[in-house]
Write a structure and sequence with these properties.
Blueprint (H helix, E strand, L loop, with lengths): L8 E15 L8 E11 L5 E12 L4 E13 L8 H27 L12 H4 L1 E3 L2 E8 L1
Antiparallel strand pairs: 1-4, 2-3, 2-6, 3-4, 5-6
Length: 142
């Protein structure tokens, strides 16, 4: 990889795969857990991939649960390939999907009559850990 050039990978699309929300009429706790799971699937020709970032948000008293999954579709820019697509998935894809997850979490909680849950600035790569072939990580927010 030439570090003076761009990776040569295009962010083709972002798709909402799943959105689930439920709540009880009680007040939610401000002790919140946010869990992320990240997976990627590379095309057989290694020129495109889909990456999925899943987010589960719950409060300590189980008053509400929010589950959402976003899929990012990435491909090489023909003739400008400069980074291995698997390496790109590992280093960049989750960070590119995080703002879409952040918006869904904030908007959904506000529309449900809860205080807005704002996912704090995080280093998503630092919290993701390899576990049984999936990449998962959890943060606690108050």
């Amino acid at each position: 990889m030439d570090t003076t050039k761009q990776p040569g990978i295009w962010f083709d699309n972002v798709l909402l795969k799943e959105l689930f929300f439920k709540r009880k009429p009680e007040l939610a706790s401000y002790d919140i857990t946010i869990k992320f799971t990240f997976t990627s699937s590379i095309a057989p020709d290694k020129k495109a991939m889909n990456c999925e970032l899943v987010c589960d948000v719950t409060d300590k008293n189980d008053v509400f649960h929010l589950h959402c999954a976003m899929i990012g579709v990435f491909s090489y820019v023909q003739g400008k390939e400069n980074m291995d697509i698997a390496e790109f998935a590992e280093r960049n894809a989750a960070a590119l999907l995080l703002p879409y997850i952040r918006e869904i979490v904030s908007t959904t909680t506000v529309q449900a009559g809860l205080p807005p849950i704002r996912i704090p600035p995080i280093n998503i790569r630092a919290i993701l850990k390899d576990q049984d072939g999936k990449i998962t990580g959890t943060i606690s927010a108050k």
